[in-house]
Here is the input.
Amino acid sequence: MYHYTDFDAAFLAERNAQFRAQVERRIDGSLTEDEFKPLRLMNGLYLQLHAYMLRVAIPYGTLNSRQMEKLADIADKWDKGYGHFTTRQNIQYNWPQLRDVPDMLDALAEVNMHAIQTSGNTIRNVTADHFAGAAADEVADPRPVAELIRQWSTDHPEFQFLPRKFKVAVTGAQADRAVIKAHDIGLQIVSQNGEIGFKVIIGGGLGRTPMIGKVLYDFVAQADLLPTIEAIVSVYNLLGRRDNKYKARIKITVHENGIEDIRSRVDARYALIRDEFTGVDQQMLSRIESDFAAPEFRKGDDTPYHTAYQHDPLFRSWADTNIAAHKNPDYAIVSISLKAHGKTPGDASSRQMRLMAGLAKRYGHDELRISHEQNVILPHVHRGDLPSVYYALKAEGLGTANIGLISDIIACPGMDYCALATARSIPIAQEIATHFDALKLEHEVGPLKIKISGCINACGHHHVGHIGILGLDRAGVENYQITLGGDGTEDAHIGERAGPGFSADQVIPAVERIVMAYLDLRNEASETFLQTYRRLGLAPFKAALYPEARADAA
Amino acid sequence: MPKAFTPKVVTANALLEGDVIYLTATGWTRDLALAEVLTDEADADLRLIEASAQVDHVVGAYLANVTVIDGIPTPVHFREDFRATGPSNYAHGKQATRQQEQF
Here is the structure.
């Protein structure tokens, strides 16, 4: 866990004092909305459909129990007793009042948190693999370098007015759990002849024009990473299009100019600026790395795990779906589902936040993570403690055994909250989850990722959902387009649009037809939805989705 | 032929609370049912200009279409329906206030 220096604390205090004064000047009429808006956005404050929304960064998804407790306190004191975890490892409060926001930011600063650069055309919260530091398949922990990038990008004078927002994600493993190929810059820690370095991918992104990122460099040495990133953003800052908002992201810059052209520009820029990086960043990185040293794992008895696994089918089901392999065989990574059937994906009440904080303190070396899939992770739990953790979670509605299954749905806030949305996402997610729960098919269907966005901006990652759902406004009625075969992992792939969209009450039966077709088509129970789709392509699923078209053709 | 003018209300968000408000003949209301229905285009444009000028109280004023049912303005588009009601996943926002008023 990164420890704030005096410099960090002073910077945050000053920034919060500035924003407090800006809010006061807006309220007393000294600032117009046009003047105030860019200032509030730089501090994560949006004005949404029903209220303001404060988006708080959870850098690389890492929290300690004190921070999680503070998030709960803020939810109770200034919001409606809950928070919404997002696909970019942020937490959003949906109901703050303008006068209270400076106090909320001061409360966050007490636990070294902030909302800086969670909006605006800047480098946003740096995200990372939510299993970072714990995963069995990891080359190295991606969080130290993510923290270095956070510090470098925060208030970076050259990059406060980029052509458009800019998102960076880092993973330390070959298995990509951070969707790095759908980011402006995706970084993968790799080892080459014993040396740690980075594969650098640029130009990925979802939204209106989805693109899979392209490899800019296969290997960049650790000491050269920051100047490389600075060169990339610098090239984009000059070359990126400011004439058209829809063509302003780096994915379009890369697409229009070609990766070779961009590479030669980045090389040239890099040569110019490399000497400015005198190694101070590497000294800072080694200090940061010591902050992220692995906890002292304990030896212990795992009999309670085996006993519960043998005797309690509910625990067994949960353990089979919600637990991942830890680098220490005595330990496990616990994914806590924020997707109880029928609940809002990604929402946690203040009670639930406090419970998770308490479990982290008691059983989890004081660490929590937020995943881009809108769940909470306890990265370090001794296997012997798993039953205790499970029964405590279950008592607060957090024991749902559905990680990676059909009801573990990503959904953006959609038109229930978002001013940009064209349709609702949350009720569709709720209905799909309750429908398949009632059918008792979830575990039979197996791994299946449904991702729902309420507009073309794709915060719900629908393009990389195995089943993607995009909510649109068709002549004043909510309409849902389905894409199939998307994948957000290391084999990233943009889903194919299946055909005409469905009304809100038709989309759940449509999803059911796809799932039933899969159960018919799969070779064996172990062939996943995505494997079946890749083997057979869109056609059989399309036929199931549009039976009337098949009847017409016959 | 120009399109016939359909009834409208002026709506915005309140600066301090951020919630949805509607223009009345004398000020602002948080309840669409109490909003002033504008049936004349020139009048509507003028009222929007007046509302937008109140920069110390309101943000983002615009004209929203309504239909008048039994004398009460009702949203035409589903987006305005959500703004007038609140989110569908929790009884928060205006629907919560309305329930309290009924009690």
